[in-house]
Amino acid sequence: MSRPIRRIASRAPRAAIAAALFASLTLISGVRAGMAETFAYVGNADSNDISVFKMSESGEMTLVQTAAFKGVEKPGSSTPLAITPDHRTLIAGIRSQPTLAVSFAIDPRTGELSHLGNGPLADSMAHIAIDRSGKYLFSASYGGNKVALNPLLGNGVAGEPKQVIPTGLNAHAFLPSPDNRFAFATNLGSDQVLAFAFDATTGTLTPNDPPAYKVPEKSGPRHFVFHPGGKFVYLLHELNGDVAAFTYEARSGAWDEIQRTTALPEGFSGKEPNKKPWAADIHITPDGRFLYASERTTSTLTAYRVDGSSGKLTTIGSVPTEKQPRGFQVDPSGRYLAAVGELSDSMTVHAIDQGSGALTKLKSYPTGKKPNWVEFLKLP
Predict the structure, then answer these.
(1) Hey, which residues does 22 pair with through a beta bridge?
(2) What does the alpha-carbon distance between residue 223 and residue 263 come to, in Å, rounded to a whole number?
(3) Is residue 31 scored above 80 in pLDDT?
């Protein structure tokens, strides 16, 4: 006698319908599992902490954490930040004594920071960066006229300096090349950019050939950024406000200047007392179409359109921003720019017009005291 067939297959469609209904309700409520979130990290020198903001799709910022530096008592002159390529660790450079690299673990879900430990820095470092392998920390000392290389240990904390290299006057930025085969350091007081060959396997720096590139006297090369395509590099000069464009030859690490323009707003003469150029920071959009530079005397941001073929710049214009904008950053989507003001203790978010590259102010947010550095991160 045959048994009756049990109809269990009908449960599958019901389960699928329920899952689809749940998913639609979840989307409506705005709580999407695994949804990527964008966070901004602001280094505050005088309050010795980091303001952590969550950014919405519209550019709205919400403060989610204030992470204090453990083991640090005195404020330094600035607080440079760097994030490892795997997005797991954020490192802050402490410029007061004792000079430290403070490491934080980044929560992959909330973006919040938890203290991992403190490692030694060779001096008071104006700039820090992490190599493309995530194994080494580059740093530049403005007052100490040197650059250094620290290994990053397995726990994300910096070890003892592996190399400390004397430079010309006022080393200000120290960054690896896009392919991690070279590293370059600006010397603001000696008007040069030092070039090193970098062996990421051994963690060793050696002078490249040529070992330095000279720039105009008293121009003060400060910060620089590589084009995402890897064929160009843009150098900001603090003392005269120049922005110089170079072709970059990846095989040899050679720079060749092709253009020089300015970060100073139209009408700026620089002849009034205490009104000298004082350029600060430079960044490029992830797609390489637009470049931005900040100038502290006028508290402005200047925008440029980048020719993808020649690398040359066309000035779009300047807009006011936070007072004394020492640091700013472009978000990973290329739709927003966040600038912080050392003298306003706040951050302004600007929208980037996707057609023209022009900036439009959206809103300002309070930060800690003397904010001077911004890093963005998209998680997961």
Answers:
(1) none
(2) 13
(3) no
pLDDT at 34: 53
Q: How would you list the strands of the sheet with 182-187, edge to edge?
A: 171-176, 182-187, 192-199, 204-214
3-state class (DSSP) for residue 221:
strand
CB 304 within 8 A of CB 315: yes
Contact residues for 378 (Cβ-Cβ < 8 A; gap 6+): 36, 37, 38, 39, 331, 332, 333
Average model confidence (pLDDT) across the chain: 93
**Inter-residue contact 266 to 304 (CB < 8 Å):** no
Distance CA 64, CA 62 (A): 6
Give Rg (Cα) of the chain: 23
Distance CA 318, CA 359 (A): 8
Residue 367, exposed/middle/buried by CB under 10 A (0-12, 13-18, 19+)? buried
Q: Dihedral, CA atoms, 241, 142, 153, 226, nearest 10 degrees?
A: 20
Calculate the CA dihedral of residues 121, 133, 156, 61 and round it to 10 degrees: 90
pLDDT, tens only, 73-89: 999 999 999 999 999 99
For 203-211, the CB contacts below 8 A with 24+ separation are 203/135, 203/136, 203/149, 203/151, 203/162, 203/163, 204/162, 204/163, 205/149, 205/163, 205/165, 208/182, 208/253
Name the token pair of 325: 């904008």
Rounded Cα gap, residues 286 and 227, in angstroms: 9
Contact indicator for 110, 78 with CB cutoff of 8 Å: no
**How are strands ordered across the β-sheet holding 279-284?**
279-284, 290-295, 300-306, 313-320
Q: Which helix (H) or strand (E) holds 104?
A: strand 100-106
What does the block give as tokens for 6?
Answer: 């049990």
Q: Give the pTM.
A: 0.91
